[in-house]
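Before a computer can learn anything about folding, someone has to put a protein's shape into writing. The three-dimensional part falls to structure tokens, numbers that each stand for a local backbone shape. The protein below has been through that process, and both of its lines are reproduced in full.
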Amino acid sequence: MAELKNMLYMWITVLQLWFELSLCLSEWPQTGQAQYENPPEVVIPLKVAGTGRETKTRGWLSYSLYFGGQRHIVHMKAKKLLISRRFSVFTYTDKGDLLEDWPYIQNDCYYQGYVEGNERSMVAINTCFGGFQGTIQVNDIQYEIKPKIPSNSFEHVVYKTNTEEENSHPLRCALTEEEIENQLKFQQNDNFMRQSGYEGWWTHRAFLELILIVDNQRYNYRHRNLTHVLQDVFFVLNEIGKIFAAIDLEINLIAVEVWTTQNFVSGTNTGHLLDKFCDWKEGRLDRRIRSDAAHLLINQNFGMFLGKAYVGGVCMPYSCGVERLLGENLVAASNTVAHEMSHGLGMAHDGRYCSCGQRDCIMAPAQNPSVKFSNCSYASLVQTYRQKHCLRLPADSSRLYKFQLCGNGVIDDGEECDCGSKKMCETDPCCLANCTLTAGSECASGLCCKDCHFLPSGTLCREQENHCDLPEWCNGTWPDCPDDVFMIDGSPCLDTGYCYENRCNDRDKQCQKIFGEKARNANETCYRHINTKGDRSGNCGVYTNRYVSCRISDILCGRVQCDNVLNIPVLEEHYSIHWDRINDFNCWGTDFHWGMSAPDLGEIKDGTECGEGHMCLKRKCVPKPTWESECSPTYCNLQGICNNKHHCHCNYGWSPPFCELQGYGAMAFTLKSWLLLPFLRLPDLFLRVEGICAASDNTPSFSQQIVLILLVGFLGSEG
């Protein structure tokens, strides 16, 4: 009997282990047992040295893969701008309370690139969870790649995502042509844009801040595992980032909200659900965080319809969309999200005369695997870019959040500290969840705070970054480093440069930044010949959409001209390099399209020397300004330098505000120092020491003495 009990116990244990293992495996990517639309191929990616010129630059990776009957060299580079620096995840407690968390997100494992020898190719792969997972578009065919499980030799499976079979009832976007026409009736596209030669149009970089919301059914489908939900979201994000990169649109994910307890909207069809979601977005979401667009990913089946969005709604209260996210086909879901987001950017469905070089394009009404935009889509996009100024602004976390709140990780007015979510506060030794300091703590954060206490006076908290920057030291009574200041504009730097807005502007350095360390400033002949042209290669700025040729007196303030260029650099898109040979002088430079949002590498920076006692200012060569200021080396007792606030920035070992007493350097920045400053500037001040006012026989008035005594008392009580 005992033996029977032991056998029964053993079988129960085995069944329990088998059940737990089944649950565990059910959450793995089912690559080894997945059902594919097309037969998969097994490949082993082999890392190779980059063969293309641009892949030799830092950050590019190259792999060789054999699929589709031939070997492909894939070049890819990490795309680090996909996720906002202040990325938030919103969830809900069982009681319905909103939680906001700021989890660590690995942001260097999402890659985008291309296939060597195929200029129309696209690659979007992530390596965050071991192996390659993503898509490769080559020869107008889209492949999906996933790790093969199990495998001990880095095996992957690659298969086509598109099929030649026609579906009698294809899945499609829920927007009807009548709805699109009504929504676009106030938008007019330029007819000249509708032409067959659509590729290579000059688009300008734009930025879209996106929020994705995941419904409760999808959360339950992922076994209520938030990590797996976020994995799906980031896969979709990388895919749509690849698609929109073709039109120079940066997608920046600023937040994800997961409805962990219930759905906050519901609908009987996609149109009804879209209306409800937009109302929820405007009434609830927009009140706590701004975005250019918000989209809801739903684990619901609405028959033949995949999703819906308002046309041209980007940056408006109705900039919203809903998309179906069923099962494991994240690639198809990504295409749907890209399609609906494109509606928000003003794109209608492609018509008879719309073309992208493939049978179907992204904006075809029915589902298809295309990642190409048509000429009609480009025309709509150009019109949207002209009208939507919000798309011109890079992501900025400081303008996203509207309300102050204890628990948001930011020290707002009235808070001593803010450790973030309750979970994060549990491990914070300095800050409590109610945004107050723990007993005995002086601080919880800041460059001058360590182990809940202020760092000693004189501790370096911000190093000098360049020739015009100034270091800062802790003062021993405050957790934050003093304001970041720099040398006053016009201060000499290097051999011939002047400081201007914390830059030492030197022509040789500017040439080296573009063309390498051996490059040097070119002869003035180059400046005279090129900057008087008044075109993209040589000008003194733009006025009323036209390039302005430089006057002879301003030629050194147009575009930089360089010599001794040994290597041609790899620059970003829209930049071009030009070379001229003028009177035996080599003249190297860059041109620049004035409509771009990227910085102009070739423009002469303000503050650059253009003759003895002269500097460039707004493309003009002007006498070096003499800024009105009481600050001077003598004013700082020759123990400090004047900074951009026209205050003494004392050397280490000397104390502000006049660098006359021993201390720990830098600049006085507390209120009590500025209260004292007007009185310390009196020429007859009797407290100045060691001959600063020795020549003066005057003594301060009685009222001045009284004020000084009160101030000294105030300082003593504060210190």
Summary: The chain has five domains: 34-78+109-163, 93-98+187-403, 404-445, 492-623, 670-719.
